[in-house]
Amino acid sequence: MTxxxxxxxxxxxxxxxxxAAGLPAATAAxxxxxxxxxxxxxxxxxxxxxxxxxxxxRELTLGTxxxxxxxxxxxxxxxxxxxxxxxLASMEPADGSLWPDAVYADPDPNTDPESFGYSERLxxxxxRLRTMAQAYAQPGTGLTGxxxxxxxxxxxxxxxxxxxxxxxxxxxxxxxxxQIGAPQALLDSCxxxxxxxxxxxxxxxxxxxxxxxxxxxxxxxxxxxxxxNRVDLCRVxxxxxxxxxDAGKIALARDALTPVFPYVTSGDGIYADGSIVQHTYxxxxxxxxxxxxxxxxxLFALLSGSPWAVVDxxxxxxxxSVEHSYAPFLFNGLMMDGVSGRAISRGVAAGDPAGTEANDxxxxxxVIASILLLGEGASxxxxxxxxxxxxGWCQRDYYxxxxxxxxxxxxxxxxxxxxxxxxxxxxxxxxxGHRQFPGMDRVVHRRPGWAAALSMAxxxxxxxxxxxxxxxxxxxxxxxxLSWWGDTFANGQYSDxxxxxxxxxxxxxxxxSRKKLADGQGGAWGAARPDxxxxxxxxxxxxxxxxxxxxxxxSTLLAKxxxxxxxDAVVCLGAGITAKDGQSIETIVDxxxxxxxGGAPLTVDDRPQPTAYPWSATLPGARWAHLAGxxxxxxxxxxxxxxxxxxxxxxxxxxxxxxxxxxxxxxxLTLLTDHGTDPAGAGYAYVLLPGASAARTAQRAADEGWxxxxxxxxxxxxxxxxxxxxxxxxxxxxxxxGPLTADAPASxxxxxxxxxTAVIGVSDPMRARTALTLTWARPVAAVLSRPATLTAATxxxxxxxxxxxxxxxxxxxxxxxVRLG
Length: 821
Prior knowledge:
By secondary structure, this protein is α+β, with helices and mostly antiparallel strands. It is 28% helix and 25% strand.
């Protein structure tokens, strides 16, 4: 089916490495073509091998193991037929276009935004032909095997070749459309129509692919040939080899995957901590990462059992990413927005007749389907474990059931239904634990009943990415946005037209200026990055401490923000909040999307607040608040709380040039602390209790001994919760907080266990220290385990730990386990 949300990227040039060690790029490509490199010789392949590959790709594209007369396939296939029939009826070949609404002829071809639109419509034309080819090849579409449709497809493919996509054309607009989007759709169509296409036609089409995607496209691991883009290019080369029976092309595609597998320490790729980054500075597990796992799972499946099977031992590192990189950001079927970059702005596309909203759930479902496909080539233990994970995610997605997802291909739908129907598979529940991803300044915390994710920014990671007219108001998504979801509630909090209707200066958890910013402020493609290094945290036994030295985007705002992640709560501290722009500075305790009706009652200190819209109030001395069906909020020592109910109207076009212009309205309840205009050293403290009842919130507020704030200053922020054995401190410059003293900047988390031992977790978020000394004023009998670079000294009343060079750890927590005295 036609997918209305395309993935586009920008041409970036940078230094890179040769594909084959010791060989120039051209030599490596030639070696693969002739069989003298790591791939097999051309003579090793037979016609049967290529026929088998075409069959495999056809099955991967169309799906297997389902009945076209059973639901949900019957309706999905009928819709596919309807879509293809509409495209067939509206196709009008003319100079510069195949459809009147998709003119690709550029009167002034270059690489400006206007030319991007023309090249996008070239890709759109090929994607539409692929939709028609799927309707021709799939059973149950009403157009299965229709010869009039086949004739139209040949006409369309010939038209695009003759007019625009041929070996004589110079590309314009977006490189992606010419090297990935259009050729992938073209080659898919060639596989599906293989028996309907004469040899001379295929020869012409492949000449065009060779022109735009030469072997040199994967000659070095650089620029637009890294990470997910590299996998996409390999898919083009592999299918070009499959369709054209070219063993060398397939071998080249396989071998060009090799640079994708090793962990990276900067730039694009997968990090040892599980981070996935694309465009150098953007956390992208949920978008480019989704392309990565989709592409690799397909290529592994395509080549498995063939002379070109992917046997590189480093492929296991990618298989490990299922649980190390992807699973942490999947929650009850959704993919968390904080790792989806500018994709969060795509929503409803202009011209989409179905008006389907691309959201976190529709980004999560295909990743789950890819995990299932990847599992077919993994170990039996991995396959079984992943099937359990997938079944759990799918069963729990009550907000957006996977079998009703209109964006899924029939093949993906078949894999998901298969695991749901498999009674031998036991669904795996959501885990309880904590993961920090210093490679992309992200944090995920999970406890029974809820999950939270924290998005930060540093000189390593952008505040937000915009580009191609997308996500132009995502300014503050990296300014400490704290997103959270419940297991049986609020699973659609950010799914229901959140991004076009939320106030973009009041994202939950952020501290931000009310200063008006321009669309795309700070630059495109991750250019907007703060000049700070102290961003990160530490973890011990699933409890954690995180901190962000915040510099405002295009403002003078400075702040120190800390979060402490516990069993049923997140403690949030802010200090040193200063600005000189003549604008008000606010910390957004939360900003909840209450849907179209917005009826959730708000209670503050046992007093029900009005439910009318619009409404606002300033509530001095507030100690706790409760939003029914969502959460409780506790304010230690009391605070002046501002609350407001708003009915906000926006359109996807407001934040994405390709979005629908149709206005939508959603109602919001916002809780915030107003630090005033040009604050000097302001601060805040609050506790988030996801899913708490009003009674439990009031009880927690009354228990003044539960939480002890050790420090909340511009130098140190720390808390302790004695009942949990928890102490967490962010030392911005070193110093003492409670029982902990650090001689340099550090994040420290301590968990005292009930068995008489304790875990001490330490990191240097700045990644700059050659040594770090931490003293814990607590009697310790013995050090049970420690990192290799750590030395320990104990006295009768304290423990001193000296960590070695922390610069090379990438901000990852170093842990020591001790026996208490």
